[in-house]
Amino acid sequence: MIRTAILAAALSGLWLLLSGYFDKALLLGFGAASIAVSIYLARRANVIDDEGVPNGLMPGIFGYWLWLAREIGKANIAVIRHALAIDLKLSPQMLKITSPTKTNAGLATFCNSVTLTPGTVTVDLEPEYFVVHALTEELADEDAIMDMGARVARLESPSAVQEAEHQGAAAIANPGTGTKTGGGAP
Amino acid sequence: MDLDLIKDILSWILFAAGGIAVVAGAVGLVRFPDFYTRLHGAGVTDTAGAELILFAMMLQAPNWLVVMKLVFISFFLFLTSPVATHAVAHAAWVGGVRPMLGKDLKRAGDE
After folding, report:
1. DSSP code for B45
2. Which residue of A44, A119, A151, B12 has the smallest Cβ count within 10 Å?
3. In this structure, is the dihedral angle defined by the CA atoms of residues A97, A134, B39 and B73, taken in order, positive or negative?
4. What is the ipTM of this complex?
């Protein structure tokens, strides 16, 4: 229920700020109706879960994004230097990273943060670990990547972790109905 | 110095920095040796290039509603560009493209 409320608030904010109508009753009514239909369809499609509305990571995620933006800036400078260097000095590496996160939303946030940081790209996701391709040895800094993962793991609220463990147990109990995994194996 | 002049100077600095990042990303895309390293070049254009140019546009926006629209664009780009990059990288990985590794850029199985 709390997820539906968060989704409704987010959609209302998005509609208001994109349209810019604050005092036209008819148009506001249409906006409210479209949000109601969206939420009805989302509930019917059963997508209001820890991935659709990742409230398990809020509110710490906003501070994390600021930290991530700084890391992206630093990594950009390193990759731009390599791109513009007179002699290309690349030493690509593959890394196997075991994620410390426990929820799907946390794992997706971690893997996408790694991809978003220039110089490192997540190429494959396995149940136990994920595979990262890095541009050079310096950028293939496993400690820095694990530090990023630890920051994401700290954002995960205890109730979201509990829910993820519960879903994991349910997936083992009835395979076939299993929970979605981010990224997905082929 | 009035506020408009300061805003113009700041936004021009950001436009120039964003432009440099886009060009550097494109240069990396052309110069890097294999598929996976080229992706890192594209990553610079995705992040620094796009975001810096969007910040510069926010400083030039005529009102707050336009600023908010630009904030939404940068936010959704921030969420979707790594997904697109991962989709491409994962497709190559599953399709059997092996990366060049190490200082001598050897593929597994090469002489």
Report:
1. I
2. A44
3. positive
4. 0.84
In chain B, which residues have their Cβ closer than 8 Å to the Cβ of A122? 86, 89
Domain layout of chain A by residue ranges: 2-44, 57-173
**Min distance A155 CA to chain B CA atoms (Å):** 17
CA distance B45 to B54: 12
- Whether residue B65 and residue A122 make contact (CB cut-off 8 A), yes or no, is no
Q: How would DSSP label each residue in B13-64?
A: HHHHHHHHHHHHHHHHHHHSSSHHHHHHHHHHIIIIIHHHHHHHHHHH-SSH
pLDDT tens-digit series, residues B7-32: 999 999 999 999 999 999 999 999 98
pTM to 2 decimals?
Answer: 0.81
* Dihedral angle sign, alpha carbons of residues B35, B38, B40, B42: negative
pLDDT digits 0-9 by tens, B38-84: 988 888 888 889 999 999 999 998 888 999 999 999 999 988 999 99
A181 reaches B (C-beta below 8 A):
no
Q: Is A158 helix (H, G, I), strand (E, B) or coil?
A: helix
Residue A160 and residue A57 in contact, taking contact as beta carbons nearer than 8 Å: yes
